[in-house]
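chain below, 387 aa
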Amino acid sequence: MDLERRLGEIRNFLKRHMPLAESEVLNHYPNPLPSPYWEWARELSMLSSEKLIKIENLDEFDGLSVDLKEYFLDLKELIKVPLKTPTGHTIPKELQVGMSEKKRHETSQIKSFLAPFKFNSFVDIGSGKGHLSKVLLHDLNGRSVCIDSDKTLQDSGHAQIKKLTPELENKITFKNQHFDLSSELEDRTVTILGLHCCGDLSTALIETHKKSDGALLNFGCCYHKSTQLNLCDSSRKDPIELSFHALNLATRSNRLIDQETWRRRERVKIYRYILHMIQVDELGGEFESIGNAHHTDYDKSFREYVEIHAPRLSTLPLESLFETYMGSEKLKRLLSLEVIRSPLGRMVELFILFDRAQSLNDSGRSVEVFELFSRDLSPRNVAIFSQ
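prediction:
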């Protein structure tokens, strides 16, 4: 894969569709989204949920209009990333204590991928309890410094090592530290590990790696907390301004949709959208976020939901308003827009990751970008590996 070329293609695609990515669908209401999105939403609103799920998962586009089909096909092609499938390392049972299935999968894949390189000295940043370092070192004569700002997690991890795997106690050191751009490594030759570094922490690792002599393996996450963007030469010359909504879209991207996920999401969207439409249409209000409602709130009746999150509206005839909006063309289109917008999240994520990787290329490093984890278990599955 030509990293710089793909980055440019993604940048151009995002610029064309930034009106869709940069703002939540409801932020436009009562105005329709600009063309062609509102027309595309009408087309999708007439399809079954089974068909829409296949489209959002980028599996099937038969029967779509030419321009809408082209949108999805271009998107599907641009988000392809090379896949590495090493045979997962078998993790001893004593190391699995406290590890989720997701964490077992991730650490097993990383262990297998790194094995041929014979690395044995690591700094594990954002390490939490040190699960990754334990898996890497349980059968190696090496060492790892686990850096994390959460001392409680570190103390728990150290106690677990002492109790279950005391042979690792001399190999793994916990260092309580907030790692950022001003941080420096004590040993410039170590391999830097960052398994799902939140927001700008990935950028700190990358900039530290540029000044070191070792390798880097990094996975990003929590892009909605990122402020350091457009890092490489080409992005600085032709930057993209990513809004919080675009970054948040990237944070929750690359998740496969099934019928149950669709049902739950639609229930949430229906309540949120109708509440907002009532505020705007009946009271002349503007968009107001209700924050993160508890998932059980969406199991209640619409009136109970409104009484919790917008009690000032409780005097309105909510039952009849709900029925009116449920049958409206506008609501159907708004719900369908999610099918068009959601896959853009992976595109935003890859722009961020490819930009980070290309900044390493610009500095003279040899860089690979690839998927290492199963999408089902770990959607933030794209690695940046640099030497």
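The domain at 93-248+345-386 is CATH 3.40.50.150 (Rossmann fold). The chain has 17 helices and seven strands.
thats it, cya
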